[in-house]
Amino acid sequence: MELNRPLATVTPTLDGDVLAVLAGFEGTYTTGQLHRVLGRHSEEGIRKALRRLVRQGVVHADRVGNAFAYRFNRDHLAAEYITGLAGLRGKLLERIEAALAAWKPRPRYAAVFGSAARGSMTAESDIDLLLVRPDDADEDRWGLQVDGLAADVSRWTGNDARILEFTVAEVVARGRDEPVLSDVVRDGLTVAGRHAWLAGQIRKRKS
């Protein structure tokens, strides 16, 4: 799946991309605004998709001067299912958080990073996860937990999970010398621990 195009899991069309944007926002969008947010497709294509969605009743069109502003119809019978699909990235993060919270021991820090965090996934993209392991963790037990999480993420999404691991000592010792850690500080989506802790280790190495 593509977390940045969540409705593509059921409809790999422009209509799904438009709905995902509208369902994630309480206000209105003009065609031009949708074009800028989507960063793909022509304005004419977006306009045609909006007309189709208005005919289905799932989008409202409000005239503003000579133009139209479009908003998601949250009273539509399909609305709860559309918003559920539109929120798939958040749902994935919640599931990973819940899984990590049950670990013994828990990671010192964990984050989703790479294309899944930046919003540039394709259907073939891996889902990248950083895990920072406590120094005293039992390696066999930890390995079983990691393997289980990788299998779960792949089952939840259809994408391969690529897990990158560091110990706490490695993060403290190497800090900014590992470019991927700087990438995680900049773009990562925290699912365990505190972002400030990892950022602090990077700053220590810079000073």
Please trace the helix and strand order, writing H or E for each element: HHHEEHHEHEHEHHEH
End-to-end separation in angstroms reads 41 Å
Can you identify the CATH class of the largest domain? Alpha Beta
What's the architecture of the largest domain, going by CATH? 2-Layer Sandwich
Helix content: 40-55%
CATH topology of the largest domain: Beta Polymerase, domain 2
Count the strands? Answer: 6
Organism: Amycolatopsis eburnea
Pfam families: NTP_transf_2
Protein name: Nucleotidyltransferase domain-containing protein
Domain Polymerase nucleotidyl transferase: 109-139
Condensed summary:
The protein has 207 residues and is α+β, with helices and mostly antiparallel strands. It is built from 10 helices and 6 strands; from the N terminus they run αααββααβαβαβααβα. It comes from Amycolatopsis eburnea.
What does this protein structure show overall?
The chain is α+β, with helices and mostly antiparallel strands and 207 residues long. The protein folds into two domains: 6-85, Winged helix-like DNA-binding domain superfamily/Winged helix DNA-binding domain (Arc Repressor Mutant, subunit A, Orthogonal Bundle); 88-206, Beta Polymerase, domain 2 (2-Layer Sandwich). The protein is built from ten helices and six strands; from the N terminus they run H-H-H-E-E-H-H-E-H-E-H-E-H-H-E-H. The strands form two sheets. It has a four-stranded mixed β-sheet with strand order 5-4-3-6, with helices on both faces. Helix 1 (14-23) packs across helix 3. The longest helix is centred in the C-terminal third of the chain and has 19 residues, at 139-157. The mean pLDDT is 93.
